[in-house]
Design brief:
The protein is mainly beta and 250 residues long. 4% of the residues lie in helices and 23% in strands.
Length: 250
């Protein structure tokens, strides 16, 4: 969570409502307030004087998206300060106690219960496995539960992980947009040979930098039944034709 303030705002410490869970039990919290200069101001009808950024979904290893759709943004008039509240994750083993009187208990890390999808594929260690000491808690990964993991590299089947996939189509003519073009040679070659169903007897791959050829990934079939897949790294405005097909992902 973070506050961004501008020329017409500042942070102020205020008392918390006892029922305000956003303060996590603290008696005070910091909020952005307007300065006297906020009225009048030039962009009052367009942008506020401050913004809070708190997407808060965590789970980066689970491919959680952090960002905004095209055309959307959080606007601030004359931004000048960025104040961050670090995320703190409580990994305390509750069997060791959870009050100030218990700080002397369990002075060395003692893992508590945690989802089996945690620890990036390493052996799960919990209270029932004291023979596996660890200074790491899988709760640091912000796992939601034991059923859903993250990147399949670390969370293999049968854990249900979010997997980002792309569909590919062939563009027979014209030019593809930069957001849909394939910009990686290996992706280009593997998709052409194994995904599109092009019935070639064999594929020849070529990596070039040629402004006379279409930019990105393209494939050309030949009369002998073979096909040439070309990845062109050069910036080019050469359009695709009926003979040279462009590949895009959607």
């Amino acid at each position: 969570m973070a506050w961004m303030t501008g020329a017409h705002s500042e942070l102020e410490e205020v008392e918390c409502d006892p029922n305000d869970v956003s303060s996590h039990g603290a008696p005070t919290k910091w909020v952005a307030v307007d300065k006297p200069s906020a009225l009048p101001r030039k962009f009052a009808d367009v942008a506020p004087t401050s913004q809070m950024f708190s997407e808060g979904n965590g789970g980066e290893s689970r491919k959680s998206f952090h960002g905004y759709p095209d055309g959307f943004a959080q606007l601030i008039e004359s931004p000048d300060s960025w104040t961050i509240t670090p995320m703190q994750i409580d990994t305390r083993n509750r069997d060791c106690g959870s009050t100030y009187k218990d700080v002397g208990n369990c002075t060395q890390m003692l893992p508590a219960y945690e989802p089996r999808s945690a620890r990036y594929g390493r052996n799960w260690q919990g209270k029932d496995k004291p023979a596996l000491p660890s200074n790491y808690s899988g709760i640091l990964e912000c796992p939601c539960n034991s059923r859903y993991g993250g990147d399949p590299i670390f969370y293999p089947s049968p854990i249900k992980s979010k997997i980002v996939t792309h569909n590919y189509v062939v563009l027979p003519s014209g030019a593809c947009s930069s957001t849909q073009a394939i910009w990686d040679a290996q992706e280009c070659f593997s998709v052409v040979a194994g995904t599109l169903g092009i019935g070639a007897t064999k594929f020849e791959n070529a990596t070039v930098s040629d402004k006379t050829l279409p930019q990105g990934c393209s494939v050309m079939t030949h009369s002998d039944g073979s096909a040439t897949t070309t990845f062109n790294s050069a910036e080019s405005s050469t359009p695709y034709s009926a003979l040279i097909l462009s590949l895009i992902h959607i």
